[in-house]
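Changelog excerpt

This revision adds worked examples to the README so contributors can see how folded entries look when concatenated. The first example is reproduced verbatim below.
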Amino acid sequence: MELRRQLTVLVTSCDAYRDVETPFLSLFRRHWPDCPFELVLVAETDRPAVDGGFDRVVATGSGKNWCQMLAEALERVGTPYVLLLMNDYLLDAAVDTAHFAVRLAQAKQFDAANLRLNPNPPGRKSWPDSDLLEYPKNVAYSVTCQTGIWNREYLLELARRNKSAWEFERYGSFMLDGEMRPLLVTQTKEFPFIDAVHKGYWEKFGVAVCKKNGVAIDFAARGLPPFAIRLREGVKSLIFALFPWTLIVRIQNLLDIGMKERM
């Protein structure tokens, strides 16, 4: 089957992050010029079609949460698989299309609910007859927004049951009872992106990648994080390094704390 009919690259955005779309597009087209898949932007308001831009824009209208926007876009996608990206996932190296096609074939072969291309967190056990690892069900971050190949119907089901992207990860990871399809992951990072924006601010490495590639950033829209944000994120990283992720997330979910607000 033609690759374009098998998978759609779906990029989630919102009007508050519209300034990030230009760096995303510039780096995506530079580092994946032979991308054989339709590139679709999910946004609140429409964007003009331009050469080298997104192939299509799904404008969902304002007032909807991230999962509602994602679900509406998935309902308009005709391919059985989706590569899900956030618009602040900036490519910083070339994508190997032939190797990506191998991973897509494995997702289909093993009927995977998700085949993650970034082992964060790492997989727990080997998947038979492959070089892939598997996540056990109902553990923290067994479901995430990290770059991966999703079964479209499975992703749509999860989106309909959650609201924000962070609920999708935190609650969705524990919505897997009875799910027979595996959650698979590569042993190394195979989709060369960086998560360039955190807490609404540019990360220094995101700025560095854009500068290296001659991509302009609109610092009037967002800047670098202040010291208080950097300190809080450093403490959070230390806590996750010292304690089991699943225990921390189950406590967060129980007490309804630590939820982020973006969409």
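The second example, added in the same revision:
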Amino acid sequence: MPADREKLLEIENITVRFGSGRKKVTAVRNVSFDIYKGETFGLVGESGSGKTTIGRAVMRINELEEGEIRYKGARISGKIPKEMDREVVKNIQMIFQDPTASLNDRAKVDYIVSEGLHNLKIYGSEEKRRKIVERALLDVGLLPEFADRFPHEFSGGQRQRIGIARVIVMEPELIVADEPISALDVSVRAQVLNLMRTLQREKGLTYLFIAHDLSVVRFFTDRLAVIYKGAIVELAPTEKLFANPLHPYTRALLSAIPQPDPEYERHKKVETYDPSLHHAADAPEWTEIEPEHFVRIDIFGPKSENA
């Protein structure tokens, strides 16, 4: 990554645990990565791998047990000053996975979209607030008159657009997108992704894009981190990772991607990752194998009897 690019978010050796005593579970362990201004950074892995936990830690929903998260060089994890908290709330927003559960069915779209404006009191007059809401709805491809309707009157794709409008009225710099299309019909997924790309270009947005579908992240992200059981095992520019997957878990994920070719599907071999064959539990090492391409653990052979 060019040295002159601005680091917008820095995640350094974070660990997140839930529960207490013997029931304590480590959801994320010793995770580190940076996100640069204007890029789309992808975080991909199976369900339960810790992707959403990291996203919620960035949003300051999940507390860290170890490590630190910095936004524009300033620490935002743990207890922070009130003014910093206000800046984080405004500049870091989240698009949730389920567009139905994330919207209040008892509130009209007008209130849902402008809730953040109300909370921070940053809209000025009531007339200006209405115009901000109308502009946001137009930006996501919805009519301004939809502001007086309720969420249950819309389709899944439209509800997700309302969720995106609720985010962009805050004029954020960083958006944590937690599987924003996984709950949508296949026919509207591309529309939502294209909308997000357009908004990124027009408003200078930066995305942390969380997903489990590798075929989606390949065409939407600039860099990609693969996470397995709470730890990142490989990180690289997206095309470089797809062209040369080094970690066996990454190769297993890629081998499972369905292809629109019946003949290929009939003969393809899906790889299975066996962590017991590697040194991950003993002495994981984060190594730059080639420029900007990092991989974790010993990938060059089976575990020896003395390891």
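Reviewer comment on example two: Residues 299-307 have pLDDT under 50 and may be disordered. The longest strand covers residues 7-18.
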